[in-house]
Amino acid sequence: MFIRRIAAALLALALMFASEGETAECAAEAYDIYDRIMDSAGAAIVYCPDSGEIIYGHNIREKRAIASITKILTAVIALEYAEKNDRSVEITEEMYAEGSSMYLKAGEKLSLSSLVGGMMAVSGNDAANALALSLGGSIDGFAEMMNRKALLIGMKDSSFRTPSGLDAQGHYSTAYDMALLCAYAMRNERFAAIVSQKCLTVGYIEPQGKTQQLYNHNKLLSCCEGCIGIKTGYTKKAGRTLTSCAKRNGKTLICVTLNDGNDWQDHCRLYDCCFERVTALSVTDETISIPVAGEENGCVLAETEEPAVLTVKNGSEDRIKVRYCAPPFLFPQVKSGDEAGSAEIYMDGRLLMKRRLVIK
């Protein structure tokens, strides 16, 4: 009852300070959705991957079992290694695992990236073990790699013990940390391509010519507007865990729910609500002029190689600043497409991203 009274008071404040164009009816509808999430999910977050802003949060730093959404970190490590060497992995009986599986057989050979595809589509625990033993030498060795990577990403309240997410003592994370991981993973183009596919064909090295057609367990790809990934999970201890990413009208959000028996519907409802509370901000439309050495009044024009469009909370636009870092001059032989510095995008003094400047 006390918590409900606090929530009612917060609703009243939200109605008083509703953003421009937001009606009291919309704010009340949002409160109703948030209230339902608090009833159904142990923890939940809607996160803005561009700005790092939290659009909605419930128990976001509470440490919990996370089940197979663990595989996001396993996939990231494997794909980053595969960029340098997408080597062949021979399957052994040691890699077999309980629970969801690709049904790999001893003696078969697949590339690292193929194993990632199977692991993410059907949540193959055997594929996760194959990646871990191949890259880490042992499950414990790979867990050390996972924990080092997690710290680099900023996941300060997480601890990993298995590559698959099967329940293990000391294996946990938080909704907030998993949102950070999702944001990091979705910036990897190969990862994003894998998790966005409803059906994935995995090729084998041995037996030569063998392929396997796998259907993604993530129903949000079909039932949630704009969903582009990423991973489901379940164990008895963790309950249902779900991470997703959606893009609508140039705006991108990430949602994480832990121990939520109504997760499909909750993600859809949260997106419907939270996309109304963010805006897509184009921040590098400017063209800058750079002097050319030895040419009186001579200069060339430079622009970002690709546009920078940020998703930010409504009202946060003025907190975004762009700093153009270009040389004091360029030599006459400069040509179109040459690099000419960078554009750095900041929020409240915190660097969000960089874009290359190139000569027009």
**Helix share bin:** 25-40%
Q: Main sheet?
A: 5 strands, antiparallel
Oligomer: single chain
Domains counted in the coordinates: how many?
Answer: 3
Estimate the global geometry from the Cα principal axes.
globular
Count of strand segments: 16
Q: C-alpha Rg, in Å?
A: 23 Å
Would you give the CATH topology of the largest domain? Beta-lactamase
What is the strand content? 25-35%
Q: Using the 3D structure, state the CATH architecture of the largest domain.
A: 3-Layer(aba) Sandwich
The secondary-structure class comes to: alpha+beta
Please identify the top-level CATH class of the largest domain. Alpha Beta
Mean pLDDT over the residues: 90
Describe the strand arrangement of the main beta sheet, using strand numbers: 2-1-9-8-7
SSE topology string: HHEEHEEHHHHHEEHEEEHEEEEEEE
CATH superfamily of the largest domain: DD-peptidase/beta-lactamase superfamily
